[in-house]
Amino acid sequence: MRRKVFDVLVSAGGAVVVVVLVVAGSLALWGHSVASSNVHNQLAQQDIFFPPLAAFAHAKPGTEITPGMIPYLEKYAGQQLLTGPQAEAYADHFIAIHLSEMPYGGVYAKVSTASRANPKNAALAAEVQTSLNGTTLRGLLLEAYGFSTFGLIALWAAIASFVLAAVMALLVGFGFWHSRRVSESAEILAPRSGTVRLQGGLEPS
To answer: What residue numbers bound the domain in which 77 lies?
Structure first.
């Protein structure tokens, strides 16, 4: 095959790859935008705020803020909950802690079973509702965190696609440039000069 033809074919194939990478990157970027905006909008509607900074200064076991919450929540003190990482911190290091302090560890199935066994226990019946509300809100927040994580992965995938597309575009440009400089008669894997075929094999000329 002529070297010029080979360069053009390979470069054309590379150009197709560039287009595919750009399209993939654009779709991934769109996915990131949709996931991020939906998570933000859904969380904003919940109107949840982290406890103020003053609450962290008086952290005690059994109160609203316990010492174990400080490393995870203090950086968000007073902020409205709007992002995936905030949702994960609030769900796992605020709601989950308070649920664990309830009877039966705040596990809805256990609290509900105990309440049905003691239908006249008003305090236990109230715990059932509290456990249900807390568990449901925690699940919703963790779901939002999961979608935000998918959005972040899509963002990194988009960046990787665009970087690869840029590298491939440079290689494609070099390929077309080389195809213009190579001789029309140049062949791929052409026989080496300085040898002639004689009877019995190749001998130096």
So the answer is: 3-204
